[in-house]
Design brief:
Layout: H1 2-12, E1 14-24, H2 28-33, E2 37-47, H3 52-62, H4 77-104, H5 114-128, H6 131-144, H7 147-158
Antiparallel strand pairs: 1-2
Length: about 170
Amino acid sequence: MEKEEARLLIGQGKDFKVTYTLLEKQKGIVGFFKKPVTKNVTEIFNIKEPTLGTLDRVSLVLIDDMPIDEAKFKGNEFETIANARKIVVANAKKLAKVIAIVAIGDKFNFSGNYEKEIKRVSELFYYAIKPSDLLKLATFITSTENLKDFINSIRLMSGARTTQPIVNRVE
């Protein structure tokens, strides 16, 4: 029953909102003389189980190791903070892009605007998503990727025995 609920959640996905501020100029000659108007915009995105193409794109971004040496976090607090900042620099844009790829999914695949939309949404997420929200999104994305079913499908299609002892399996 718990597995069915998880599958239902993965299939329906999870909505999340991103709010940002735009400076909007008025149209025509009036806009040339007046100050831009501040406008708050909210976009709603949905994260659900990705297609194989989306899963492939996410994996291509994440295939490079995300360097986290746990030993560097056991020194004094100044070294720990410096090392944490290095990790942020190395991975913040990469994580924003991963979330953008999953949130967009395959919506723009055949329109020719996919890369442009990924760039726009990645930049939006880079400036709008907070670390606390990132952890929630990363946890949900990891659960929706459904890598277990993907690996089991490969096993099934390659003729690998699913009853093979765990010692010899690669997961």
